[in-house]
Amino acid sequence: MVRGEDEVPVCRMLDLSLPGSAATLYAQTSSSGRHVDVLVNNAGFGDYGDFTETDVQKNHDMLQVNIVTLTALTRLYTPAMLERRHGGVINLASIVAFQPGPLMAVYYASKAYVLSFTEALASELAVTALCPGPTETGFADVTGLEKSVLFERFQPVPAKDVAEFGYRAWEKGKVVAIYGLPNKSLVFGERFLPRGVTSNLMKWMQKKAV
Fold first, then answer.
1. If I label 50, which of 37, 91, 106, 200 is the partner at 20 to 30 A Cα–Cα?
2. Is the Cβ–Cβ distance between 157 and 136 less than 8 Å?
3. Interatomic CA distance for residues 78 and 87, integer angstroms
4. What secondary structure, in 3-state letters, does the chain show?
5. Active-site residue, selected from the candidate residues 48, 77, 107, 179
6. Cβ partners under 8 Å of residue 20, min gap 6
7. φ, ψ for residue 136, nearest 5 deg
């Protein structure tokens, strides 16, 4: 949240897939005289299909947004939080961060980075990795997953509910916050399966439902 004396959020349209976009955003908020209380790294996108057929530039942009810009924003905004002894970061990971993801290999790997990165920062900062499952954000429609087994079996939940859950988890000091009992059960159960079995399971869940 970006606030100032008038409590009006700062909003600018900015393409976070562009190199240097994190520095641009930081300069905009800094020059406004406002400060960030809680940095929510929510921007991100995915792609669907066999890796060897995916678009090279889209993969690059995905890694730029999901990993590079997220990391840069965290680095830029957190020193002032430490100096004020107030504030922190909520990074949007996902339940997919816990397993490999055939048909969405780059996206799954990017979320694994977010999870690991956040857990590592917990020794320095007040950070939370928010890990939802299917959510009503339009993500499935954009990536082509709306008819997948995953989205057919796991009903998407309202984004507002996930956001509120994530913020409460951050306030409580939780480092990893998995939304919903079905998602928690899925992540817990996968610990007892060989990685190859998990990979095949995820490939099945992401295929089109018949």
1. 91
2. yes
3. 8
4. CEECCCCCCCCCCCCCCCCCHHHHHHHHHHHCCCEECEEEECCCCCCCCCHHHCCHHHHHHHHHHHHHHHHHHHHHHHHHHHHHCCCEEEEECCHHHHCCCCCCHHHHHHHHHHHHHHHHHCCCCCEEEEECCCEECCHHHHHCCCCEHHHHHCCCEEHHHHHHHHHHHHHCCCCEEECCHHHHHHHHHHCCCCHHHHHHHHHHHHCECC
5. 107
6. none
7. -75, 80
Distance (Å) of CA 76 to CA 21, 72, 208: 12, 6, 41
Render pLDDT for 13-62 as a digit per residue (tens, 0 to 9): 899 999 999 999 999 999 988 889 999 999 999 998 899 999 999 999 99
Distance between start and end Cα atoms, the chain: 42
| Dist. CA 57–CA 41, nearest whole Å | 22
* Token representation of residue 9: 């959020």
The pTM (predicted TM-score) of the whole model is: 0.86
pLDDT attached to residue 134: 86
Per residue in 181-209, pLDDT (tens digit) is: 988 988 888 888 788 888 877 777 777 65
Is residue 7 predicted with pLDDT exceeding 60?
Answer: no
> Is the separation of the CB atoms in 147 and 208 below 8 Å?
yes
**CA–CA dist 8, 147 (Å, integer):** 39
Tens of pLDDT, residue by residue over 78-117, are 999 999 999 999 999 999 999 999 999 999 999 999 999 9
Measured distance CA(57)–CA(54) in Å, rounded: 9
